[in-house]
Structure of Homoserine dehydrogenase:
Amino acid sequence: MVKIGIIGVGTVGASVVNILKDNADVISARAGVDIVVKSGVVKNLNKDRGLDIKLTDNVDDILNDDEIDIVVELMGGVEEPFEIVKKALRNGKAVVTANKALLAYHRYELQEIAQDIAFEYEASVAGGIPIINALRDGLSANHIESIMGIMNGTSNYMLTEMIQNGVNYDDILKKAQDLGYAEADPTFDVGGYDAAHKLLILASIAYGIDAKPEDILIEGIENISKEDVDFASEFGYAIKLLGIAKKDKNMVELRVHASMISKNEMISKIDGVMNGISVVGDKVGETLYYGPGAGGDATASAVIANIIDIARSGKSRPMLGFDRPMEAGLKLKPIEDIKSKYYLRINVSDKKGVLAKVTKIFEENDISVETMLQRPTSKESANLLISTHTAYERDIQKLINSLEALEFVNFKPVMIRIV
Amino acid sequence: MVKIGIIGVGTVGASVVNILKDNADVISARAGVDIVVKSGVVKNLNKDRGLDIKLTDNVDDILNDDEIDIVVELMGGVEEPFEIVKKALRNGKAVVTANKALLAYHRYELQEIAQDIAFEYEASVAGGIPIINALRDGLSANHIESIMGIMNGTSNYMLTEMIQNGVNYDDILKKAQDLGYAEADPTFDVGGYDAAHKLLILASIAYGIDAKPEDILIEGIENISKEDVDFASEFGYAIKLLGIAKKDKNMVELRVHASMISKNEMISKIDGVMNGISVVGDKVGETLYYGPGAGGDATASAVIANIIDIARSGKSRPMLGFDRPMEAGLKLKPIEDIKSKYYLRINVSDKKGVLAKVTKIFEENDISVETMLQRPTSKESANLLISTHTAYERDIQKLINSLEALEFVNFKPVMIRIV
């Protein structure tokens, strides 16, 4: 029998307890042993959670319990769980976590500490989709050329509604909040930070590259409007918030941003709250993994898969998937060196000579225009909707600054990268 | 260092040799050891394969070589490789195979023999997609409700061309043969047998159910015509050759057949030679796995993933994913008890009273019609294109026989199940 202790018994924790009971038949057949929850740590002991496990508000009751084999960390946060899981590992307990923020900051230190004991984290990326499993084990024969994914269900739900039903950003944000998909402060989801945490975890497995959220390009979907959606539809693109990791010679670029992507790509077909991650390996080609990226039961499904694996095999692989230096020459590409095609929406006062001035600024910044549309937004103003050929991020940022400084440009131009 | 011997050095075997060399850097970092091919067994020693490994035409040179840790079986067939891998396992060698036919017939005997030694087979289903990995490990917390997939790239390529470009069956079969996607005798692919082998493997992992190809419903795509494709498009369906495993109370239905499936389903969006498998778990919901189902390098990617896993961990789980009785009450549902909606194309001589007689036969067989279209095919004949409400397989077969017996029905009605 394997005994587990759960730190943080919220939605996911309760699902872990319930599934271990509901599905005990298949779980014990697959694990080869019975798995039981011995106790859980909560902040508020007075809240009724409807669970028949022992609860405590003292984390040491679990960390120092010799009977507990596996600690499941579901409390969230960064530094506090870091201290707790370190202590658990040092006390000889395997750890399973769903905490992407913890890993976005401390995955290499944890890999170091967990050299001889299992530390698993399938649920930290894309909820119920076994993407860690696929990338670390299933594709292990490959150099990974790229990872590109919809890693945040909230923003994908919002973008899907904007595209399919013409809803505007503020209305759909409110609806997402009403449905419980988005938090009262939605920044973490719509601003791209949640996706960035997940991207960093995947990039470590693929490339062994170390980076923190503050090192990489992170933008959200807050500035996307109906005009952008219409332009995208007209030119055969979907708009998605994508996390992208891409190898380019000895560099790896890591970035999260709203993206226009061809409707022919599988990833563009993933709608609503679902997640999907495409991985291109040098030998296998493209594979794609699709499923629910959040929700108590889906996340718990991944947590328990890790528990079953540990119950059966103990530590069967290094935490990040390698224990010799891997892809050692790869460096993080500076943001300004990233190349892309770009879409720009430039709102201008409708005066004579505006178009000539705008195109001149493109020329001066060495950025060549692929398509241009002009659409009136009122009697006095118009949107210039422009897509460019491939350009450097540094040049596009200079271009945007130059455009913004023009007196007839009404606000900072909105830019969406074309993937 | 881990040494492997390869039995059958054709396209996939050569890819295994080349990838182990090309990608030795990441492979050894992930495996924690170096992996080298010691020798390969081929039938014809005189053929130049451009590989610098030792070749032999005697399989015992590998089976009795004490230095070889892992035997990779890529020879194909059923009984001959079965004898060989049994011998390898008994000689203490781990086995990796891509051979779906071997597993379709002997997986339970192999699980028995390989109790203490690793036997892996990721490449046997859907080539480069790590679906065995996902189903056996990633979704292990779930009762599996259904598996539904495009498991044969050849037939999916043909159907895609028929639907998107209006090509007819015979022309696209010839093109598929010219491109090397289809064999001179294409029955194994277009007749559904290849997909059936893969389905049986997945069903064993999901349900622990034992069945042989001859126990289950297997139909192909040979009778699909442009009329069917047009009907499907008109009513919002794609046509796919699907392998389906579905739990229904204490029964599991297993079937491979051409299917009309709503264009809203992710699986309907998978086109060309690609494979894709949707798995619904009771807790995780739907997850889907997409990628190349064939090709030397993609298949070798899966073979090597297994080799890396074994090199690192030895035997880390039971071959089929469970070693206590699992889902023990589940039985294979008899084919005639399967329920579905159906599409029928009935070619009739265009005479008075035909429609009344046809509808009467539907009524007599207790099958209710959902939609009906009549389309002339010549001056004297017409197609009746009919979709039904849910009915039993046994009733639809009786209906088809009754219809075929009518003198004004010109040939056996074509039936496609609606999923």
Q: What stands out?
A: Residues 135-290 of chain A form a domain with the Dihydrodipicolinate Reductase; domain 2 fold (CATH 3.30.360.10).
